[in-house]
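Design a sequence for this backbone.
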């Protein structure tokens, strides 16, 4: 597993582990007073945080697609590979909300800004819930192969299940600001550690 795509995925996972908490800690700090008002205000301006939001999304999508390829290459992991593609799709949809920032930040459609922001917020919440269900389905499928997984993926499978459950609770989802980077570092280790294959049974 030393070829370039997996090495790049390992580096992407490390970068994501660093940038993800920076973005979300800053976002929640700015929204500490009135979260809804803060998020609405953020849609009306374009800044460096929007760029970081896009970068984290691209990194996450890249990591999922590389992991999807890994399962498709190593085992008949069609379900796992497909669920990772679905997760990548939901991540892309969630991060596409930056388009609303661009439109409103440039002064376009300002007369309908309230309605557009409402739709964007609702769509983002729904997308996060769908992502959580996809993550749970993926982690359960991964745990079903627990005994044949490399050690790093065993740890990742358990952590992914916890992360999915936390995401569904909404309130406890904030814990994922810490858990998600840890999972990315586990994946980075798996991608960069060498040739760790899944035993076919």
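Sequence:
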């Amino acid at each position: 597993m030393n070829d370039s795509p997996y090495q790049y995925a390992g580096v992407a996972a490390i970068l994501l582990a660093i940038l993800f908490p920076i973005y979300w800690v800053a976002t929640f700090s700015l929204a500490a007073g009135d979260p809804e008002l803060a998020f609405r205000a953020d849609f009306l301006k374009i800044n460096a945080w929007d760029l970081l939001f896009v970068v984290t999304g691209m990194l996450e999508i890249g990591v999922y697609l590389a992991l999807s390829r890994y399962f498709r290459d190593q085992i008949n992991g069609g379900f796992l590979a497909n669920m990772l593609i679905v997760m990548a799709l939901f991540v892309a949809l969630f991060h596409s909300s930056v388009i609303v920032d661009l439109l409103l930040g440039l002064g376009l459609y300002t007369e309908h800004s309230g309605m557009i922001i409402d739709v964007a917020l609702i769509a983002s919440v729904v997308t996060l819930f769908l992502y959580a269900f996809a993550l749970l389905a993926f982690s359960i499928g991964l745990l079903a192969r627990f005994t044949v997984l490399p050690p790093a993926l065993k740890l990742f499978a358990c952590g992914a299940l916890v992360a999915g459950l936390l995401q569904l609770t909404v309130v406890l989802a904030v814990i994922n600001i810490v858990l998600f980077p840890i999972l990315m570092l586990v994946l980075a280790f798996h991608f960069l550690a060498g040739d760790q294959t899944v035993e076919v049974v």
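DSSP finds eight helices and no strands in the chain.
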